[in-house]
Amino acid sequence: MKGYYALRFLLASVILAGCSSHAPPTGRLADSIVVIAQLNEQLRQWYGTPYRYGGIDRGGVDCSGFVYRTYRDRFDISLPRSTEAQISLGTQVSRDELRPGDLVFFKTGSGKNGLHVGIYDTNHQFIHASTRHGVIRSSLNNVYWKRVYWQARRI
């Protein structure tokens, strides 16, 4: 009987040691995991908030207001309030180098009112305040967003 318990203890030790042998993610991967979690939580809280030009709260928000609030509330980073001003921030990155938290910009019309901004999430997805659907997640591979995609910037 003593040998039975010793064998069970040994097996349990081997199994548990195998489960804990991987170190937690570090560096950019760990940062990405945190950013993704923060973006998902922001989307969960704001999902469906209606679009309102000039808005910055859950009563109504526009695209740059949603970006402004997300960076302020989730990352303690103060960004300018307008899409036009947000375009000048950070470093431009190519579409194939996008990382969670990068700002994605679109030319949806002409002039400064023809600009749109969102925040890259993962898997070719971004979160933003859509004029038609309010705060949502959309795919960069969608025919419309693919056609009007302009640039991305890393803050």
Kindly report the average pLDDT value: 86
Helix/strand-derived category reads: alpha+beta
CATH topology: endopeptidase fold (from Nostoc punctiforme)
- List the helices and strands in order: HHEEHHEEEEEHE
Q: Show unreliable segments.
A: 4-26
In CATH, what is the class? Alpha Beta
CATH architecture: Alpha-Beta Complex
Give me the number of helical elements: 5
Number of domains: 1
**What shape does the CA trace take?**
globular
**Helical residue percent?**
25-40%
Radius of gyration: 21 Å
Largest sheet: 6 strands, antiparallel
CATH superfamily: endopeptidase domain like (from Nostoc punctiforme)
Largest sheet: spatial strand order: 3-8-4-5-6-7
E-strand count: 8
Distance between the termini: 63 Å
Describe the structure.
The protein has 155 residues and is α+β, with helices and mostly antiparallel strands. The chain has a single domain (26-154), classed as endopeptidase domain like (from Nostoc punctiforme) (endopeptidase fold (from Nostoc punctiforme)). Helices cover 39% and strands 23% of the residues. The chain contains five helices and eight strands. The protein has helices spanning 2-19, 27-46, 63-75, 83-86, 143-148, and strands spanning 56-57, 60-61, 91-93, 103-107, 115-120, 125-130, 134-139, 149-154. The strands form two sheets. The protein has a six-stranded antiparallel sheet with strand order 3-8-4-5-6-7. The protein has a two-stranded antiparallel ribbon with strand order 1-2. The longest helix is centred in the N-terminal third of the chain and has 20 residues, at 27-46. Mean pLDDT is 86; it is low at 4-26. Residues 33-155 form the NlpC/P60 domain. GO terms for molecular function: cysteine-type peptidase activity. It comes from Serratia symbiotica.
